[in-house]
Protein backbone atom coordinates (compact mmCIF):
# COMPACT_ATOMS: atom_id res chain seq x y z
CA UNK A 1 0.00 0.00 0.00
CA UNK A 2 1.21 3.50 -0.87
CA UNK A 3 1.32 5.79 2.16
CA UNK A 4 1.98 8.93 0.12
CA UNK A 5 0.07 9.81 -3.04
CA UNK A 6 -0.99 13.36 -3.93
CA UNK A 7 -4.64 13.82 -4.82
CA UNK A 8 -5.22 14.02 -8.58
CA UNK A 9 -6.16 17.50 -9.71
CA UNK A 10 -9.45 18.23 -11.51
CA UNK A 11 -9.53 16.35 -14.83
CA UNK A 12 -5.96 15.17 -14.36
CA UNK A 13 -5.12 11.91 -16.12
CA UNK A 14 -4.02 8.98 -13.93
CA UNK A 15 -0.84 8.93 -16.02
CA UNK A 16 -0.05 12.50 -14.90
CA UNK A 17 -0.78 11.76 -11.22
CA UNK A 18 1.55 8.74 -11.30
CA UNK A 19 4.29 10.78 -13.01
CA UNK A 20 4.08 13.31 -10.16
CA UNK A 21 4.21 10.48 -7.60
CA UNK A 22 7.38 9.17 -9.26
CA UNK A 23 8.93 12.66 -9.15
CA UNK A 24 8.07 13.28 -5.49
CA UNK A 25 9.19 9.86 -4.23
CA UNK A 26 12.55 10.15 -5.95
CA UNK A 27 12.32 6.69 -7.50
CA UNK A 28 15.07 6.02 -10.02
CA UNK A 29 13.58 2.99 -11.75
CA UNK A 30 10.15 3.50 -13.34
CA UNK A 31 9.43 -0.19 -12.79
CA UNK A 32 9.50 0.46 -9.05
CA UNK A 33 6.87 3.17 -9.47
CA UNK A 34 4.75 0.92 -11.68
CA UNK A 35 4.91 -1.91 -9.17
CA UNK A 36 4.06 0.36 -6.23
CA UNK A 37 1.03 1.79 -8.03
CA UNK A 38 -0.29 -1.13 -10.07
CA UNK A 39 1.00 -4.18 -8.21
CA UNK A 40 3.31 -5.59 -10.89
CA UNK A 41 6.33 -4.47 -12.88
CA UNK A 42 5.14 -5.59 -16.34
CA UNK A 43 2.60 -2.79 -16.87
CA UNK A 44 3.31 -0.37 -19.74
CA UNK A 45 2.12 3.19 -18.96
CA UNK A 46 -0.94 4.35 -20.88
CA UNK A 47 -1.48 8.10 -21.29
CA UNK A 48 -5.23 8.20 -21.88
CA UNK A 49 -6.48 5.51 -19.47
CA UNK A 50 -4.03 3.67 -17.23
CA UNK A 51 -4.78 0.24 -15.77
CA UNK A 52 -5.36 -1.93 -13.78
CA UNK A 53 -7.20 0.86 -11.99
CA UNK A 54 -8.75 -1.29 -9.27
CA UNK A 55 -5.30 -2.22 -7.99
CA UNK A 56 -4.22 1.44 -8.04
CA UNK A 57 -7.33 2.44 -6.07
CA UNK A 58 -6.52 -0.17 -3.41
CA UNK A 59 -2.85 0.81 -3.24
CA UNK A 60 -3.53 4.47 -2.51
CA UNK A 61 -5.17 3.74 0.84
CA UNK A 62 -8.60 3.09 -0.63
CA UNK A 63 -9.29 6.80 -0.76
CA UNK A 64 -10.65 6.50 -4.29
CA UNK A 65 -12.68 3.77 -5.96
CA UNK A 66 -11.90 2.38 -9.38
CA UNK A 67 -15.20 3.76 -10.71
CA UNK A 68 -14.35 7.24 -9.43
CA UNK A 69 -10.94 7.20 -11.12
CA UNK A 70 -12.39 5.97 -14.41
CA UNK A 71 -15.10 8.62 -14.35
CA UNK A 72 -12.92 11.57 -13.35
CA UNK A 73 -9.37 10.79 -14.46
CA UNK A 74 -9.51 8.91 -17.78
CA UNK A 75 -10.84 9.77 -21.24
CA UNK A 76 -13.22 6.79 -21.23
CA UNK A 77 -16.38 8.94 -20.61
CA UNK A 78 -15.72 10.49 -24.05
CA UNK A 79 -16.38 7.10 -25.67
CA UNK A 80 -18.80 5.39 -23.28
CA UNK A 81 -22.15 6.87 -24.47
CA UNK A 82 -21.67 5.59 -28.02
CA UNK A 83 -20.71 1.99 -27.25
CA UNK A 84 -23.00 -1.07 -27.04
CA UNK A 85 -23.82 -1.97 -23.44
CA UNK A 86 -22.04 -5.33 -23.49
CA UNK A 87 -18.82 -3.92 -24.96
CA UNK A 88 -18.91 -0.98 -22.55
CA UNK A 89 -19.18 -3.31 -19.54
CA UNK A 90 -16.38 -5.52 -20.87
CA UNK A 91 -14.09 -2.52 -21.39
CA UNK A 92 -14.70 -1.16 -17.89
CA UNK A 93 -13.99 -4.62 -16.47
CA UNK A 94 -10.68 -4.81 -18.35
CA UNK A 95 -9.62 -1.33 -17.26
CA UNK A 96 -10.33 -2.20 -13.64
CA UNK A 97 -8.60 -5.55 -13.44
CA UNK A 98 -6.36 -6.02 -16.50
CA UNK A 99 -3.95 -3.99 -18.61
CA UNK A 100 -4.96 -1.76 -21.52
CA UNK A 101 -3.89 -4.09 -24.34
CA UNK A 102 -6.67 -4.32 -26.92
CA UNK A 103 -8.83 -1.70 -25.21
CA UNK A 104 -7.87 1.09 -27.58
CA UNK A 105 -9.14 -0.86 -30.56
CA UNK A 106 -12.39 -1.63 -28.76
CA UNK A 107 -13.20 1.99 -27.94
CA UNK A 108 -12.01 3.38 -31.27
CA UNK A 109 -8.47 4.67 -30.62
CA UNK A 110 -6.61 2.91 -33.42
CA UNK A 111 -3.61 3.65 -35.59
CA UNK A 112 -5.81 5.13 -38.31
CA UNK A 113 -8.18 6.82 -35.93
CA UNK A 114 -9.88 10.18 -36.37
CA UNK A 115 -7.55 13.15 -35.71
CA UNK A 116 -4.97 10.91 -34.04
CA UNK A 117 -2.87 12.77 -31.48
CA UNK A 118 0.79 11.81 -31.26
CA UNK A 119 1.97 13.35 -28.06
CA UNK A 120 0.76 15.33 -25.06
CA UNK A 121 -1.27 18.51 -25.63
CA UNK A 122 -1.91 21.47 -23.37
CA UNK A 123 -3.54 24.90 -23.21
CA UNK A 124 -1.03 27.63 -22.23
CA UNK A 125 -3.67 29.54 -20.23
CA UNK A 126 -4.68 26.42 -18.28
CA UNK A 127 -1.05 25.59 -17.56
CA UNK A 128 -0.33 29.11 -16.31
CA UNK A 129 -3.37 28.95 -14.02
CA UNK A 130 -2.25 25.54 -12.71
CA UNK A 131 1.26 26.80 -11.97
CA UNK A 132 -0.07 29.93 -10.26
CA UNK A 133 -2.49 27.93 -8.12
CA UNK A 134 -0.63 24.67 -7.46
CA UNK A 135 2.98 25.51 -8.22
CA UNK A 136 3.10 22.86 -10.94
CA UNK A 137 1.52 21.85 -14.23
CA UNK A 138 -0.38 18.66 -14.98
CA UNK A 139 -1.88 16.85 -17.99
CA UNK A 140 -5.56 17.67 -18.55
CA UNK A 141 -7.61 14.85 -20.04
CA UNK A 142 -9.85 17.26 -22.03
CA UNK A 143 -6.79 18.37 -24.02
CA UNK A 144 -5.89 14.83 -25.12
CA UNK A 145 -9.19 13.95 -26.84
CA UNK A 146 -9.02 13.02 -30.50
CA UNK A 147 -10.77 15.53 -32.76
CA UNK A 148 -10.43 18.36 -30.24
CA UNK A 149 -8.15 21.24 -31.26
CA UNK A 150 -9.25 24.01 -28.88
CA UNK A 151 -9.33 24.31 -25.10
CA UNK A 152 -12.99 24.15 -24.02
CA UNK A 153 -12.33 26.68 -21.23
CA UNK A 154 -10.39 29.39 -23.05
CA UNK A 155 -10.81 28.65 -26.76
CA UNK A 156 -7.03 28.56 -27.17
CA UNK A 157 -5.39 26.41 -29.83
CA UNK A 158 -3.88 23.40 -28.05
CA UNK A 159 -0.11 23.04 -28.19
CA UNK A 160 1.98 19.90 -28.39
CA UNK A 161 4.44 19.31 -25.54
CA UNK A 162 8.05 19.18 -26.72
CA UNK A 163 8.80 15.83 -25.09
CA UNK A 164 6.99 12.90 -26.72
CA UNK A 165 6.82 9.18 -25.97
CA UNK A 166 9.25 8.34 -28.77
CA UNK A 167 11.92 10.45 -27.06
CA UNK A 168 11.89 8.44 -23.83
CA UNK A 169 11.63 4.87 -22.57
CA UNK A 170 8.22 3.28 -23.04
CA UNK A 171 8.12 2.77 -19.26
CA UNK A 172 8.75 6.42 -18.45
CA UNK A 173 5.99 8.70 -17.19
CA UNK A 174 6.38 12.09 -18.88
CA UNK A 175 5.81 14.96 -16.48
CA UNK A 176 4.86 18.45 -17.65
CA UNK A 177 7.77 20.72 -16.79
CA UNK A 178 7.06 24.45 -17.02
CA UNK A 179 10.57 24.93 -18.43
CA UNK A 180 9.39 23.27 -21.65
CA UNK A 181 5.99 24.96 -21.80
CA UNK A 182 5.29 27.59 -24.45
CA UNK A 183 3.05 30.10 -22.69
CA UNK A 184 2.55 32.20 -25.81
CA UNK A 185 -1.13 32.42 -26.79
CA UNK A 186 -2.08 31.36 -30.32
CA UNK A 187 -5.78 31.86 -30.91
CA UNK A 188 -6.36 31.43 -34.64
CA UNK A 189 -9.89 32.47 -35.48
CA UNK A 190 -11.31 31.44 -38.85
CA UNK A 191 -14.79 30.72 -40.15
CA UNK A 192 -14.84 27.30 -38.45
CA UNK A 193 -13.63 28.52 -35.04
CA UNK A 194 -17.07 28.77 -33.42
CA UNK A 195 -18.10 25.28 -34.48
CA UNK A 196 -14.79 23.75 -33.40
CA UNK A 197 -15.06 25.47 -30.01
CA UNK A 198 -18.64 24.20 -29.67
CA UNK A 199 -17.47 20.64 -30.39
CA UNK A 200 -14.69 21.07 -27.82
CA UNK A 201 -17.18 22.19 -25.15
CA UNK A 202 -19.52 19.32 -26.04
CA UNK A 203 -16.65 16.84 -25.64
CA UNK A 204 -15.90 18.31 -22.22
CA UNK A 205 -19.58 17.91 -21.32
CA UNK A 206 -19.21 14.17 -21.94
CA UNK A 207 -16.22 14.03 -19.60
CA UNK A 208 -18.07 15.88 -16.85
CA UNK A 209 -21.11 13.63 -17.11
CA UNK A 210 -18.94 10.61 -16.48
CA UNK A 211 -20.61 7.39 -17.55
CA UNK A 212 -23.85 8.72 -19.05
CA UNK A 213 -26.67 6.19 -18.80
CA UNK A 214 -27.07 5.85 -22.55
CA UNK A 215 -25.72 3.41 -25.06
CA UNK A 216 -25.40 3.01 -28.80
CA UNK A 217 -28.98 1.77 -29.20
CA UNK A 218 -30.62 4.59 -27.24
CA UNK A 219 -28.44 7.16 -29.04
CA UNK A 220 -29.72 5.81 -32.36
CA UNK A 221 -33.32 6.26 -31.20
CA UNK A 222 -32.56 9.87 -30.25
CA UNK A 223 -31.09 10.45 -33.71
CA UNK A 224 -34.20 9.04 -35.38
CA UNK A 225 -36.48 11.23 -33.27
CA UNK A 226 -34.60 14.37 -34.28
CA UNK A 227 -34.31 13.30 -37.92
CA UNK A 228 -38.08 12.84 -37.92
CA UNK A 229 -38.55 16.36 -36.61
CA UNK A 230 -36.36 17.69 -39.41
CA UNK A 231 -38.39 15.81 -42.03
CA UNK A 232 -35.47 13.55 -42.88
CA UNK A 233 -37.35 10.26 -42.50
CA UNK A 234 -40.13 8.60 -44.44
CA UNK A 235 -43.52 7.65 -42.99
CA UNK A 236 -42.04 4.17 -42.52
CA UNK A 237 -39.31 5.70 -40.31
CA UNK A 238 -36.58 5.11 -42.91
CA UNK A 239 -33.90 7.78 -43.07
CA UNK A 240 -33.65 9.88 -46.23
CA UNK A 241 -29.90 9.41 -46.53
CA UNK A 242 -29.37 11.60 -49.58
CA UNK A 243 -31.26 14.55 -48.09
CA UNK A 244 -29.43 14.07 -44.76
CA UNK A 245 -26.08 14.08 -46.56
CA UNK A 246 -26.89 17.27 -48.48
CA UNK A 247 -28.16 19.16 -45.42
CA UNK A 248 -25.21 17.97 -43.31
CA UNK A 249 -22.67 19.12 -45.92
CA UNK A 250 -24.45 22.46 -46.31
CA UNK A 251 -24.41 22.95 -42.53
CA UNK A 252 -20.70 22.30 -41.94
CA UNK A 253 -19.02 22.63 -45.32
CA UNK A 254 -16.48 20.19 -46.69
CA UNK A 255 -13.50 22.19 -45.43
CA UNK A 256 -14.40 21.74 -41.75
CA UNK A 257 -15.23 18.06 -42.21
CA UNK A 258 -11.83 17.53 -43.84
CA UNK A 259 -10.10 19.18 -40.88
CA UNK A 260 -12.07 16.92 -38.53
CA UNK A 261 -11.11 13.80 -40.53
CA UNK A 262 -14.84 13.35 -41.15
CA UNK A 263 -15.34 13.94 -44.86
CA UNK A 264 -18.17 11.93 -46.41
CA UNK A 265 -18.23 10.07 -49.72
CA UNK A 266 -21.93 9.71 -50.48
CA UNK A 267 -21.14 7.09 -53.12
CA UNK A 268 -19.86 4.86 -50.32
CA UNK A 269 -22.75 2.83 -48.92
CA UNK A 270 -20.82 2.48 -45.65
CA UNK A 271 -19.68 6.06 -45.11
CA UNK A 272 -19.71 7.10 -41.47
CA UNK A 273 -22.89 9.21 -41.74
CA UNK A 274 -24.85 6.21 -43.01
CA UNK A 275 -23.32 3.88 -40.41
CA UNK A 276 -24.02 6.24 -37.49
CA UNK A 277 -27.74 6.35 -38.38
CA UNK A 278 -28.14 2.60 -38.83
CA UNK A 279 -28.40 -0.28 -36.39
CA UNK A 280 -25.12 -1.97 -37.34
CA UNK A 281 -22.26 -3.44 -35.29
CA UNK A 282 -19.67 -0.86 -36.36
CA UNK A 283 -19.00 1.96 -33.92
CA UNK A 284 -18.34 5.56 -34.94
CA UNK A 285 -15.82 7.94 -33.39
CA UNK A 286 -17.20 10.29 -30.68
CA UNK A 287 -16.24 13.47 -32.54
CA UNK A 288 -18.47 12.38 -35.42
CA UNK A 289 -21.31 11.76 -32.99
CA UNK A 290 -20.77 15.28 -31.66
CA UNK A 291 -20.93 16.67 -35.20
CA UNK A 292 -24.26 14.93 -35.79
CA UNK A 293 -25.66 15.92 -32.37
CA UNK A 294 -24.74 19.55 -32.99
CA UNK A 295 -26.40 19.41 -36.43
CA UNK A 296 -29.61 17.81 -35.12
CA UNK A 297 -30.00 19.38 -31.69
CA UNK A 298 -27.52 22.19 -31.18
CA UNK A 299 -27.56 21.55 -27.42
CA UNK A 300 -25.81 18.46 -26.12
CA UNK A 301 -27.38 18.77 -22.67
CA UNK A 302 -30.89 18.77 -24.09
CA UNK A 303 -29.95 15.89 -26.38
CA UNK A 304 -28.95 13.61 -23.51
CA UNK A 305 -31.71 14.84 -21.20
CA UNK A 306 -34.38 14.06 -23.80
CA UNK A 307 -36.17 10.96 -22.46
CA UNK A 308 -38.57 10.54 -25.37
CA UNK A 309 -39.02 7.01 -26.59
CA UNK A 310 -39.47 5.92 -30.21
CA UNK A 311 -40.62 8.82 -32.36
CA UNK A 312 -44.34 8.98 -33.07
CA UNK A 313 -45.69 11.82 -35.28
CA UNK A 314 -48.78 11.90 -33.03
CA UNK A 315 -46.99 11.83 -29.68
CA UNK A 316 -46.96 9.19 -27.00
CA UNK A 317 -50.12 7.16 -26.33
CA UNK A 318 -52.69 6.87 -24.99
CA UNK A 319 -54.67 9.28 -27.21
CA UNK A 320 -57.97 11.09 -26.53
CA UNK A 321 -61.35 9.87 -27.70
CA UNK A 322 -63.09 12.79 -29.44
CA UNK A 323 -66.58 11.31 -29.37
CA UNK A 324 -68.42 14.31 -27.93
CA UNK A 325 -71.31 12.28 -26.45
CA UNK A 326 -69.11 9.68 -24.75
CA UNK A 327 -68.42 9.87 -21.00
CA UNK A 328 -64.72 9.61 -21.71
CA UNK A 329 -64.70 12.54 -24.18
CA UNK A 330 -61.19 14.09 -24.50
CA UNK A 331 -59.77 11.51 -22.07
CA UNK A 332 -56.68 9.53 -23.09
CA UNK A 333 -58.24 6.10 -23.56
CA UNK A 334 -57.27 5.13 -27.13
CA UNK A 335 -54.40 2.70 -27.55
CA UNK A 336 -55.22 1.67 -31.12
CA UNK A 337 -53.35 3.91 -33.58
CA UNK A 338 -52.60 3.00 -37.18
CA UNK A 339 -50.18 5.21 -39.12
CA UNK A 340 -50.17 5.32 -42.91
CA UNK A 341 -48.74 7.74 -45.48
CA UNK A 342 -50.86 10.28 -47.31
CA UNK A 343 -51.22 9.24 -50.95
CA UNK A 344 -50.05 12.58 -52.36
CA UNK A 345 -47.97 14.35 -49.71
CA UNK A 346 -46.52 11.21 -48.03
CA UNK A 347 -47.15 12.89 -44.68
CA UNK A 348 -48.21 10.54 -41.84
CA UNK A 349 -51.93 9.97 -41.36
CA UNK A 350 -53.07 8.60 -38.00
CA UNK A 351 -56.28 6.62 -37.59
CA UNK A 352 -57.45 6.48 -33.95
CA UNK A 353 -59.94 3.75 -32.98
CA UNK A 354 -61.73 3.86 -29.61
CA UNK A 355 -63.44 0.92 -27.90
CA UNK A 356 -66.70 2.90 -28.04
CA UNK A 357 -66.63 2.46 -31.81
CA UNK A 358 -65.65 6.03 -32.63
CA UNK A 359 -62.89 6.17 -35.27
CA UNK A 360 -61.26 9.37 -36.51
CA UNK A 361 -58.15 10.33 -38.44
CA UNK A 362 -55.93 13.35 -39.02
CA UNK A 363 -52.82 14.24 -40.93
CA UNK A 364 -49.63 14.70 -38.95
CA UNK A 365 -47.20 15.26 -37.54
CA UNK A 366 -48.62 17.03 -34.47
CA UNK A 367 -46.77 20.32 -34.05
CA UNK A 368 -48.46 21.74 -30.96
CA UNK A 369 -50.32 20.30 -27.99
CA UNK A 370 -53.72 21.40 -29.32
CA UNK A 371 -53.23 19.19 -32.40
CA UNK A 372 -53.87 16.24 -30.13
CA UNK A 373 -57.57 17.19 -30.05
CA UNK A 374 -57.94 17.86 -33.76
CA UNK A 375 -60.12 15.70 -36.02
CA UNK A 376 -59.38 15.56 -39.73
CA UNK A 377 -62.11 13.13 -40.65
CA UNK A 378 -64.57 10.94 -38.75
CA UNK A 379 -64.49 7.45 -40.23
CA UNK A 380 -66.96 5.70 -37.91
CA UNK A 381 -69.28 7.17 -35.29
CA UNK A 382 -69.77 3.90 -33.41
CA UNK A 383 -72.46 2.36 -31.22
CA UNK A 384 -72.25 4.82 -28.31
CA UNK A 385 -72.73 7.80 -30.63
CA UNK A 386 -75.59 6.13 -32.53
CA UNK A 387 -77.36 5.14 -29.29
CA UNK A 388 -77.18 8.71 -28.00
CA UNK A 389 -78.52 10.10 -31.27
CA UNK A 390 -81.38 7.61 -31.26
CA UNK A 391 -82.28 8.70 -27.71
CA UNK A 392 -82.34 12.36 -28.75
CA UNK A 393 -84.45 11.58 -31.83
CA UNK A 394 -87.05 9.67 -29.81
CA UNK A 395 -87.31 12.53 -27.31
CA UNK A 396 -88.26 14.76 -30.26
CA UNK A 397 -87.08 17.86 -28.34
CA UNK A 398 -84.45 19.20 -30.74
CA UNK A 399 -84.42 20.59 -34.22
CA UNK A 400 -82.03 19.45 -36.93
CA UNK A 401 -79.41 22.16 -36.40
CA UNK A 402 -79.47 21.79 -32.60
CA UNK A 403 -79.06 18.02 -32.89
CA UNK A 404 -76.11 18.51 -35.22
CA UNK A 405 -74.50 20.79 -32.61
CA UNK A 406 -75.14 18.33 -29.77
CA UNK A 407 -73.72 15.41 -31.76
CA UNK A 408 -70.85 17.48 -33.22
CA UNK A 409 -71.59 16.58 -36.83
CA UNK A 410 -73.17 17.93 -40.01
CA UNK A 411 -77.01 18.16 -40.25
CA UNK A 412 -76.86 15.84 -43.24
CA UNK A 413 -75.29 13.22 -40.99
CA UNK A 414 -78.28 13.50 -38.62
CA UNK A 415 -80.66 12.95 -41.54
CA UNK A 416 -78.66 9.99 -42.74
CA UNK A 417 -78.70 8.24 -39.37
CA UNK A 418 -82.35 9.16 -38.78
CA UNK A 419 -83.09 6.97 -41.76
CA UNK A 420 -80.54 4.25 -40.95
CA UNK A 421 -81.72 3.95 -37.33
CA UNK A 422 -85.35 3.81 -38.44
CA UNK A 423 -86.55 6.66 -36.22
CA UNK A 424 -87.81 8.71 -39.21
CA UNK A 425 -88.18 11.93 -37.20
CA UNK A 426 -87.25 14.07 -40.22
CA UNK A 427 -88.90 12.02 -42.96
CA UNK A 428 -90.75 15.05 -44.36
CA UNK A 429 -87.52 17.02 -44.67
CA UNK A 430 -86.34 17.27 -48.27
CA UNK A 431 -82.85 16.48 -47.06
CA UNK A 432 -84.18 13.28 -45.55
CA UNK A 433 -85.41 12.10 -48.94
CA UNK A 434 -82.07 12.90 -50.53
CA UNK A 435 -80.26 11.14 -47.72
CA UNK A 436 -82.43 8.06 -48.16
CA UNK A 437 -81.22 7.96 -51.72
CA UNK A 438 -77.66 8.32 -50.48
CA UNK A 439 -78.18 5.41 -48.10
CA UNK A 440 -79.51 3.33 -50.96
CA UNK A 441 -76.43 4.28 -52.98
CA UNK A 442 -74.23 3.20 -50.05
CA UNK A 443 -75.90 -0.21 -49.93
CA UNK A 444 -75.52 -0.56 -53.69
CA UNK A 445 -71.83 0.34 -53.49
CA UNK A 446 -71.31 -2.28 -50.80
CA UNK A 447 -73.06 -4.97 -52.87
CA UNK A 448 -71.12 -4.09 -56.01
CA UNK A 449 -67.82 -4.20 -54.15
CA UNK A 450 -68.67 -7.69 -52.90
CA UNK A 451 -69.39 -8.70 -56.49
CA UNK A 452 -65.97 -7.47 -57.66
CA UNK A 453 -64.18 -9.21 -54.77
CA UNK A 454 -66.05 -12.44 -55.43
CA UNK A 455 -65.02 -12.49 -59.10
CA UNK A 456 -61.39 -11.71 -58.25
CA UNK A 457 -61.37 -14.55 -55.72
CA UNK A 458 -62.96 -16.98 -58.18
CA UNK A 459 -60.58 -16.02 -61.01
CA UNK A 460 -57.15 -15.52 -59.43
CA UNK A 461 -55.34 -15.38 -62.80
CA UNK A 462 -57.73 -12.89 -64.41
CA UNK A 463 -56.42 -9.51 -65.54
CA UNK A 464 -58.01 -6.14 -64.84
CA UNK A 465 -59.62 -6.10 -68.27
CA UNK A 466 -61.10 -9.56 -67.74
CA UNK A 467 -62.53 -8.60 -64.34
CA UNK A 468 -64.06 -5.51 -65.91
CA UNK A 469 -65.77 -7.57 -68.63
CA UNK A 470 -67.22 -9.90 -65.97
CA UNK A 471 -68.70 -7.03 -63.90
CA UNK A 472 -69.31 -4.15 -66.34
CA UNK A 473 -72.13 -2.48 -64.43
CA UNK A 474 -70.50 -2.92 -61.04
CA UNK A 475 -67.09 -1.78 -62.34
CA UNK A 476 -68.44 1.49 -63.77
CA UNK A 477 -70.46 2.30 -60.63
CA UNK A 478 -67.51 1.73 -58.28
CA UNK A 479 -65.20 3.64 -60.64
CA UNK A 480 -67.46 6.68 -60.31
CA UNK A 481 -67.93 6.43 -56.53
CA UNK A 482 -64.77 4.86 -55.06
CA UNK A 483 -62.04 4.69 -57.67
CA UNK A 484 -59.22 4.42 -55.12
CA UNK A 485 -60.75 1.29 -53.55
CA UNK A 486 -61.25 -0.24 -57.01
CA UNK A 487 -57.63 0.24 -58.09
CA UNK A 488 -56.35 -1.12 -54.77
CA UNK A 489 -58.39 -4.33 -55.09
CA UNK A 490 -57.94 -5.07 -58.81
CA UNK A 491 -55.10 -7.38 -59.95
CA UNK A 492 -51.74 -5.68 -60.46
CA UNK A 493 -51.65 -4.01 -63.85
CA UNK A 494 -49.41 -5.76 -66.36
CA UNK A 495 -47.08 -3.54 -68.34
CA UNK A 496 -46.97 -3.96 -72.08
CA UNK A 497 -43.68 -3.55 -73.87
CA UNK A 498 -44.26 -1.45 -76.95
CA UNK A 499 -41.88 -1.98 -79.91
CA UNK A 500 -41.60 1.77 -80.49
CA UNK A 501 -40.56 2.31 -76.85
CA UNK A 502 -37.10 0.79 -77.45
CA UNK A 503 -34.30 3.21 -76.56
CA UNK A 504 -31.87 4.49 -79.18
CA UNK A 505 -28.80 4.21 -76.96
CA UNK A 506 -26.44 5.90 -79.43
CA UNK A 507 -28.71 8.93 -79.52
CA UNK A 508 -29.08 8.96 -75.74
CA UNK A 509 -25.31 8.56 -75.31
CA UNK A 510 -24.61 11.66 -77.41
CA UNK A 511 -27.36 13.64 -75.69
CA UNK A 512 -26.08 12.81 -72.19
CA UNK A 513 -22.50 13.54 -73.25
CA UNK A 514 -23.55 17.01 -74.39
CA UNK A 515 -25.38 17.97 -71.19
CA UNK A 516 -22.66 16.47 -68.95
CA UNK A 517 -20.00 18.57 -70.69
CA UNK A 518 -22.04 21.70 -70.06
CA UNK A 519 -22.62 20.73 -66.44
CA UNK A 520 -18.89 20.03 -65.96
CA UNK A 521 -17.97 23.51 -67.21
CA UNK A 522 -20.61 25.04 -64.93
CA UNK A 523 -19.30 23.10 -61.89
CA UNK A 524 -15.72 24.14 -62.59
CA UNK A 525 -16.73 27.82 -62.79
CA UNK A 526 -18.40 27.88 -59.37
CA UNK A 527 -16.81 30.10 -56.74
CA UNK A 528 -16.95 27.34 -54.12
CA UNK A 529 -15.15 24.27 -55.54
CA UNK A 530 -17.13 21.03 -55.69
CA UNK A 531 -15.49 17.66 -56.18
CA UNK A 532 -16.37 16.28 -59.61
CA UNK A 533 -17.95 12.84 -59.11
CA UNK A 534 -20.43 10.78 -61.04
CA UNK A 535 -22.98 11.17 -58.27
CA UNK A 536 -22.80 15.00 -58.11
CA UNK A 537 -23.20 15.28 -61.89
CA UNK A 538 -25.99 12.69 -61.92
CA UNK A 539 -27.87 14.32 -59.04
CA UNK A 540 -27.67 17.84 -60.43
CA UNK A 541 -28.87 16.72 -63.87
CA UNK A 542 -31.40 14.20 -62.54
CA UNK A 543 -29.78 11.33 -64.46
CA UNK A 544 -28.01 9.46 -61.64
CA UNK A 545 -30.04 6.27 -62.18
CA UNK A 546 -29.11 6.20 -65.87
CA UNK A 547 -25.43 6.68 -65.05
CA UNK A 548 -25.48 3.93 -62.42
CA UNK A 549 -27.59 1.29 -64.19
CA UNK A 550 -27.02 1.88 -67.92
CA UNK A 551 -23.49 3.24 -68.11
CA UNK A 552 -22.35 0.15 -70.06
CA UNK A 553 -24.68 1.25 -72.89
CA UNK A 554 -23.23 4.77 -72.93
CA UNK A 555 -19.57 4.32 -74.02
CA UNK A 556 -18.89 7.96 -74.94
CA UNK A 557 -20.44 9.22 -71.71
CA UNK A 558 -18.52 6.66 -69.64
CA UNK A 559 -15.23 7.58 -71.32
CA UNK A 560 -15.76 11.29 -70.67
CA UNK A 561 -16.77 10.72 -67.04
CA UNK A 562 -13.61 8.70 -66.43
CA UNK A 563 -11.59 11.65 -67.78
CA UNK A 564 -13.18 14.33 -65.58
CA UNK A 565 -13.96 12.50 -62.32
CA UNK A 566 -11.66 13.61 -59.50
CA UNK A 567 -10.07 11.60 -56.74
CA UNK A 568 -9.95 13.21 -53.29
CA UNK A 569 -6.31 14.10 -53.96
CA UNK A 570 -7.16 15.65 -57.36
CA UNK A 571 -9.83 17.77 -55.70
CA UNK A 572 -7.45 18.89 -52.97
CA UNK A 573 -4.87 19.96 -55.56
CA UNK A 574 -7.49 21.91 -57.53
CA UNK A 575 -8.60 23.71 -54.36
CA UNK A 576 -5.00 24.68 -53.62
CA UNK A 577 -4.42 25.89 -57.19
CA UNK A 578 -7.56 28.02 -57.08
CA UNK A 579 -6.48 29.64 -53.81
CA UNK A 580 -2.97 30.30 -55.17
CA UNK A 581 -4.32 31.88 -58.37
CA UNK A 582 -6.63 34.13 -56.35
CA UNK A 583 -3.71 35.26 -54.18
CA UNK A 584 -1.53 35.96 -57.23
CA UNK A 585 -4.33 38.00 -58.79
CA UNK A 586 -4.64 40.04 -55.57
CA UNK A 587 -0.87 40.42 -55.22
CA UNK A 588 -0.87 38.64 -51.85
CA UNK A 589 2.05 36.53 -50.55
CA UNK A 590 1.68 32.76 -50.83
CA UNK A 591 2.18 30.87 -47.56
CA UNK A 592 1.88 27.10 -47.46
CA UNK A 593 0.27 26.94 -44.03
CA UNK A 594 -2.31 29.49 -45.11
CA UNK A 595 -3.09 27.54 -48.29
CA UNK A 596 -3.59 24.41 -46.18
CA UNK A 597 -5.90 26.20 -43.73
CA UNK A 598 -8.08 27.86 -46.38
CA UNK A 599 -8.33 24.64 -48.41
CA UNK A 600 -9.25 22.68 -45.27
CA UNK A 601 -6.75 19.86 -45.90
CA UNK A 602 -5.39 17.87 -42.97
CA UNK A 603 -1.65 17.84 -42.43
CA UNK A 604 -0.91 14.29 -43.61
CA UNK A 605 -2.67 14.82 -46.93
CA UNK A 606 -1.11 18.26 -47.43
CA UNK A 607 2.38 16.88 -46.84
CA UNK A 608 1.76 14.33 -49.59
CA UNK A 609 0.53 17.03 -51.96
CA UNK A 610 3.66 19.10 -51.24
CA UNK A 611 5.97 16.18 -51.94
CA UNK A 612 4.25 15.09 -55.16
CA UNK A 613 3.20 18.36 -56.73
CA UNK A 614 4.35 21.48 -54.89
CA UNK A 615 8.08 21.28 -55.43
From TrEMBL:
<dbReference type="InterPro" id="IPR032750">
    <property type="entry name" value="TnsD_C"/>
</dbReference>
<dbReference type="InterPro" id="IPR009492">
    <property type="entry name" value="TniQ"/>
</dbReference>
<feature type="domain" description="Transposon Tn7 transposition protein TnsD C-terminal">
    <location>
        <begin position="199"/>
        <end position="561"/>
    </location>
</feature>
<protein>
    <submittedName>
        <fullName>TniQ protein</fullName>
    </submittedName>
</protein>
<dbReference type="Pfam" id="PF06527">
    <property type="entry name" value="TniQ"/>
</dbReference>
<dbReference type="Pfam" id="PF15978">
    <property type="entry name" value="TnsD"/>
</dbReference>
<feature type="domain" description="TniQ">
    <location>
        <begin position="4"/>
        <end position="158"/>
    </location>
</feature>
Amino acid sequence: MIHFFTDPYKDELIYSAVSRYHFYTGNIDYKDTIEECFGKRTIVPSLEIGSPIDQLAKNISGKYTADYLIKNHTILPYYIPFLPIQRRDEIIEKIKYKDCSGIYNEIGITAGSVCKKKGIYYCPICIKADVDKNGEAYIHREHQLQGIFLCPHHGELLKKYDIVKNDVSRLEFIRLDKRFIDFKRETKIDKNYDIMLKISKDAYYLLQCGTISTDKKSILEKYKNLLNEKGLTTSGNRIKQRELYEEFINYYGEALLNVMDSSIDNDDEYNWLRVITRDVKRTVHPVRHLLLINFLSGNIGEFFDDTREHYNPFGKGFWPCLNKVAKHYRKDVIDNLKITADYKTRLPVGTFSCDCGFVYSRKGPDKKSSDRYRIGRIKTFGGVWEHKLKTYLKENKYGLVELARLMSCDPKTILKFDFILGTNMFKNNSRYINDKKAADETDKLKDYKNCILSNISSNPTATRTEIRSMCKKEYIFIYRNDKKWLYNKLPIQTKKIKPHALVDWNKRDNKLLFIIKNKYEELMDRDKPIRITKSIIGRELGILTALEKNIDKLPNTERYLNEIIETVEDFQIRRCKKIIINKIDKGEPIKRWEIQRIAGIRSEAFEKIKVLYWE
